[in-house]
């Protein structure tokens, strides 16, 4: 069976758009900015500060790729990207506070972080991602309402056997 989220029916009230799109666009803009900063850092790295330049470049590019991937996951209806993006948006707001003396930068960070958090935490976004997850579980033949037994460890069933993927 094909469990691509775009192939699954979703009620019109929770179709992709609105606050989910706001959150995804904020994440994609932040991820693209991090990628650009990584490239600029790589180009500006001098031989006397090579270690710092390389590590900063790797950090910016790596974080940018994660943020872009999480944003894309929201666009295609996969919920895994929501949690890392909530963390990133909270950090964005903290960074805005830290840079409050540079008003244009601080304002841009507040706008991106605030809109991103609002979009991620809005009930329609949560409802959409929940319904997509339920539809994917049903397409795989799983019961989306079944809870794991209390004595089960992550990755194992109640008998201690590894769960099949």
TrEMBL record:
Keywords: Membrane, Transmembrane, Transmembrane helix
Transmembrane segments: 20-40, 52-76
Region (Disordered): 137-165
UniProt biased composition (Acidic residues): 144-159
Domain of life: Bacteria
Protein name, per record: Integral membrane protein
Organism: Nocardioides bruguierae
């Amino acid at each position: 069976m094909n469990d691509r989220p775009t192939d699954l029916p979703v009620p019109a009230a929770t179709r992709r758009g609105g606050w989910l799109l706001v959150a995804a666009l904020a994440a994609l803009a932040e991820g693209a900015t991090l990628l650009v900063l990584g490239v600029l850092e790589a180009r500006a790295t001098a031989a006397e500060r090579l270690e710092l330049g390389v590590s900063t470049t790797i950090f910016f590019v790596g974080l940018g790729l994660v943020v872009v991937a999480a944003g894309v996951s929201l666009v295609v209806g996969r919920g895994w990207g929501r949690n890392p993006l909530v963390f990133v948006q909270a950090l964005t707001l903290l960074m805005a506070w830290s840079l409050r003396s540079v008003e244009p930068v601080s304002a841009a960070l507040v706008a991106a972080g605030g809109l991103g958090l609002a979009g991620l935490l809005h009930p329609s976004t949560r409802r959409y991602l929940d319904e997509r997850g339920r539809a994917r579980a049903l397409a795989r033949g799983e019961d989306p309402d079944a809870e794991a037994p209390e004595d089960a460890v992550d990755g194992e069933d109640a008998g201690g056997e590894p769960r099949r993927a």
